[in-house]
Amino acid sequence: MAPLTDDATCLDLIKELAAPTILVVGSYLGSVSHALTSQEVLSASGLRLLSTVVSESPGSSVSLDDTVDMVRKYQKSAAPVFSLPRVTSDEQMENYGDCLVTLLQM
């Protein structure tokens, strides 16, 4: 629902494109609510949710794993939920590429 223009949001753009969606949320306190609400809005708009990716928020008081578990537990969608830890090495960056390929093949 983030504004793109004075009259349109990201949701309007996704609807116009009829694009399957990958929802990316953080792991901060409140992000489970944001994820579930966004999933509901996508569903109510007739849009296809490919997956939800929980990106680790630096300094969060909530763990990445706990956030992923809660989204999986409470979501109504059958779409997979992936965790995306913060990159701290080149090896981890290579793993992100593999994750992205998997998402794009869905």
Write the layout of secondary structure elements.
Elements: H1 10-17, E1 21-25, H2 31-44, E2 49-55, H3 64-74, E3 81-84, H4 90-104
Parallel strand pairs: 1-2, 2-3
Question: What is the gist of this entry?
Answer:
This protein is 45% helix and 15% strand.
Describe the protein in words.
With 106 residues, the protein is α/β, with parallel strands linked by helices. Helix content is 45%, strand content 15%. It has one domain (10-104): Rossmann fold, CATH 3.40.50.300. The chain is built from four helices and three strands; from the N terminus they run αβαβαβα. A three-stranded parallel sheet has the order 1-2-3, covered by helices on one side. The radius of gyration is 14 Å and the shape is globular.
The CATH architecture can be named as 3-Layer(aba) Sandwich
- Cα gyration radius (Å): 14 Å
Terminal-residue CA separation: 24 Å
With helices defined by DSSP (H or I, 4 residues minimum), what is the helix count? 4
The level-1 CATH class: Alpha Beta
What portion of the residues fall into strands of 2 or more residues?
15-25%
Major sheet: arrangement of strands:
1-2-3
* Mean pLDDT rating: 88
Question: What keyword list fits this structure?
Answer:
106 residues, 4 helices, Rossmann fold, alpha/beta, globular, three-stranded parallel sheet
